[in-house]
Amino acid sequence: MPNNIPLRFLPLFLTINVIIALALVAPAWSNELNQISQDTKLTYHGGALLTKQRTINIFLVWYGAFSPKDRTTIDNFFASLSPDEGSGRAGQEPAVSTWWKAISSYKDKAGNPVPCTVKVVKQLDDAYSLGKNLKRAQIANYIQSKIASKTLPLDSNVVYFVLTAKDVKVERFCMGSCGFHDSIPVPGKGRLAYSHVGDPSVQCPGLCAWPYAVPAYGPPGRPLLAPNGIGADGMVINIATVLAGAATNPFKTGYFQGDALAPLEAVTACPGIFGAGAYPGYPGDLKVDKGSKASYNAFGASGGKFLLPAIWDPMSSQCEVIA
C-alpha cells in the first residue's frame, strides 16, 4: 500500500473543513490548533533518509497538457529550493530556500542532514501514454519502465515526480489525497522514492488548492487570491508537502507519527498552517502583493511568490512557519 502523504495531507482540507462545519468561532479553534501542535511528536524510526549525496536530484515527468505559465511557475519553485537561487535576484526574504533549509534539521542515524540543495536534473513530457485514468500502481510501473529503458536516469538520492494535468484522474486523488510519495525496488539500488501530484484546479480546488479555493461546505468566506493561478499554486503547496515527506520518510522508516502507511510527516503534521496566528479555516497572517492583492509567504527565483506550509521542527517540536 502506498505511503499516503495526504493521508493526513487532507487535513489541509478535509479535516479542517469538517472541523469548520462543526463550529464557527475561530478564536476557540486557535487554542485547539496550538494543542494539536504541542501534542505532535514525529519519531525517527531509524531508517534511511535522502542523505546519500549533498543534493536531492529531481526527475520531473509532465504527464498531460500543462500551460507554459503553470510550467514556469513550478519550474521556478523547484529552482527556488536551493540556496543559490532560493531568494531570487533581489535577495528577498523570507525565501523558499530558507523554508527548505528547515528540513536540514532532520538527520539520519549517522547524523547526516537532509541536503539543503535540490536540483531538477531532467524533465520528461508525456502526452497521455497511459490514458487519462491512472491507478497508483501504474505510476510506479511507469517510473520503473522509464528507468529500465534509461529514459530516466538511475540515481540513489532522488525523487521521481509525476505531475499530472488537470484532465487526468489518478486513483484516490481528490478522494483522500492531493499527492503521495512511495518507493519502488530497483535492482542494485535498493528502493528509490517517487511521488505524484496532480493539478487540482478542475477536479477539487476547494480541497487541494486551499486557501486559494474554498470547499463547497463550511462557513462562508472568500478564497485568497493566488499569485500564480489556483492550479499552479495548489500544486506548489502539494509538491512542497510531498517533497518534504519523501526526503524525511522516503521508505516508511524515517520521521513520522502514527501508522506507517498513513503517517503524519514533516508537513502533514502541521495541517492548514501557513502563517502566524493560523487556525482551522484561516491560513495565518500572510504577505499581500500591493498590485495584484495575491497572498503569499515566500519569495523565489525569477521574482516568484509562493505559499508554503509550516514544517514540524524536530529541534523545537513545534510547527514552524516561514517568516
UniProtKB/TrEMBL annotation:
Q: Give the InterPro entries listed for this entry.
A: EXORDIUM-like (IPR006766)
Task: Tell me, in one coarse class, where this protein mainly resides.
Answer: secreted
Q: Does the keyword Glycoprotein apply?
A: no
Q: Keywords assigned by UniProt?
A: Apoplast, Membrane, Secreted, Signal, Transmembrane, Transmembrane helix
The UniProt entry, under Pfam families, shows: Phi_1
Membrane-spanning segments: 9-29
Protein origin, superkingdom: Eukaryota
Q: Where in the cell is it found?
A: Secreted, Extracellular space, Apoplast
The entry's family comment says: Belongs to the EXORDIUM family.
Put simply, this protein is called Protein EXORDIUM-like 2
Q: Which organism is it from?
A: Xanthoceras sorbifolium
